[in-house]
Design brief:
The chain has 140 residues and is an alpha/beta fold. The chain is built from 5 helices and 6 strands, in the order ααβαβββαββα. Bound molecules: zinc ion (2 copies).
């Protein structure tokens, strides 16, 4: 196990209370569909994708992720990075209002309506914009 992986796993295993409080504020502010745990099918799928990237050493923390436990973000549209909140928001602002903002993170199709969704697993927040079929897909 690499130091990098241990470092990232420490981030994932950090206390969850801050992440859940933060996620709740995001849900209130944006109307995003926020799950309270990692058992929702979408949350399971996103966390599985994150863990796959982690297992293959594909995910690197942005330069602002501190060595102490902190809220971190993983976004399927930037799958090679574990983001601090500023970089995660930067990713979302970059595409806001563009054609890419209508691209489903699940199937990569451009669609009329995206369902923003997020879930917390420990201090890790996974967040995606999904088309309705991908959001409602409970088979994965
Ligand atoms: Zn950052
Ligand atoms: Zn989709």
């Amino acid at each position: 196990m690499t130091v990098q992986r241990v470092f990232i796993e420490d981030q994932v295993d950090a206390p969850a209370a801050d992440a859940h409080r933060f996620l709740h504020r995001v849900a209130v502010a944006t109307g995003a569909d926020v799950t309270e745990g990692s058992e929702h099918p979408v949350a399971r799928r996103l966390i599985r994708e994150f863990n796959g990237g982690l297992a293959f050493g594909l995910i690197r923390p942005c330069p602002h992720v501190p060595p102490a436990p902190a809220i971190t973000w993983w976004l399927p549209r930037a799958p090679d990075a574990l983001h601090c909140v500023h970089c995660a928001v930067g990713q979302l602002i970059t595409i806001h209002g563009t054609r890419e903002d209508s691209r489903c993170d699940g199937c990569s199709q451009l669609v009329d309506a995206i369902t923003p969704t997020a879930a917390a697993a420990g201090a890790l927040i996974v967040s995606a914009g999904l088309c309705r079929p991908c959001f409602e897909d409970t088979t994965t």
